[in-house]
Amino acid sequence: MDLGIGRAFVKVFFLDMARDLEPPARLSASGFDDARRRRADADCLDGASSLPSELGRGVRRRSRRMEFCMVKVLRSIPLAVLVLAVLVATMPGCVRAAAPDGPTAPVQRLHDTLLGVMRDADKLSVQERYQRLAPTLNDVYDFRMMTRLTTGSAWTSASEAERAALVEAFSRLSIATYAQRFSGFSGEQFEILEERPGPRETTLVDTRIVRPADDPVHITYVLQKQGEEWRIIDVILQGSISELAVRRSEYAQVLREGGPQRLSETLNAKADALLGS
Question: Which domain holds residue 60?
Answer without folding.
Answer: 3-90
